Amino acid sequence: MTLGGVTEQAQYLREANDHVVTLAMIETRTAFAEFRRHHRHTGIDGFFLGPSDLSIALSEGKNVDPLSKEVDVELERMIGRRAKAKKIPGAYCHSAERAAALAKRGVKFLAVSSDLGMLRAGAAAA
Fold it and tell me: What is the pLDDT of residues 84-95, one digit of tens each?
């Protein structure tokens, strides 16, 4: 049995945590407030923004708009803070175009679409 390509269990157990990345998921006002207070926390390697859910939180449940000005302002603040704290910025993107735009702004970890979205697109194409 191999553990992530490492055949020696003792070696795996010694080295596994060196290869783990911990991201704080930011989708609510509370999560964003915690990020602002603790963005320099040593146990967190970066953040991952859920823009649709954050837009719901920022609009007090009245709107779902991952491209809203409010989400964009908060994303820009997060990108600025992460640079100072040397954290990995990440975000969910509904399209490749959005991912490319965020990459130009310094976001390094980009999730494009979702597993369900990809399955639906593949099924529709078939």
Answer: 778 889 999 988
